[in-house]
Amino acid sequence: MRLPDLSSSMYVAWLRHIQSIHEPLECRNPDILVRHLLPLTQRLRTRWLGRKELTRLRAEPFYYYLVARTKYYDQVVNDAVLDGTRRIVMVGCGGDTRAYRFQHLLRSKGVKVLECDQQNAIHTKQQLSKRWKPSDYVGYLPIDLNDHAWPELAHWLEQRPVGKTLVGMEGVSPYVDENGIRQFFLFIA
Questions:
Q1: Residue pLDDT, tens place only, 18-47
Q2: Rounded to an integer, what distance in angstroms lies between the CA atom of residue 28 and that of residue 165?
Q3: Measuring CA to CA, how many Å separate 123 from each of 41, 62, 89, 129, 135?
């Protein structure tokens, strides 16, 4: 399958993959499934990254921030589910596999997940994630936070089990205008 140009989310996915295979345990990214979102040629090249390229990447502040961010949001999801959250809405999740890495916990607690991203990103994610067989607990919805209205998301929220809902937005705010973020937060509230 030819992937659309999802430059930012695929760059982050690529960094997560590098971190999951080239870093020592304390700095390793736990997103071990992310490799499946990358083209085969990119996965193979990543396996053979040289010391010079790794040193360059490690010098970027975002590199280790990404590991910390992934671990932090993993813990947020884990704690929320253990605290009774019944549904999770993940916004901007194109290059993330949290819903599939936490599959056992989410299914065992009956948690429903809705992954949301821009249309090209979420369509690609839905196609690539079929290998994890998430059909009974994960749904997919294309949304653009700059649209200022999200009727399909409102419908999903009305149809799902009542209970605590966790809304996660990881790394999307730089791409959304201020009014769009404000409107989305008001909508979710």
A1: 999 999 999 999 999 999 999 999 999 999
A2: 29
A3: 21, 27, 16, 10, 14
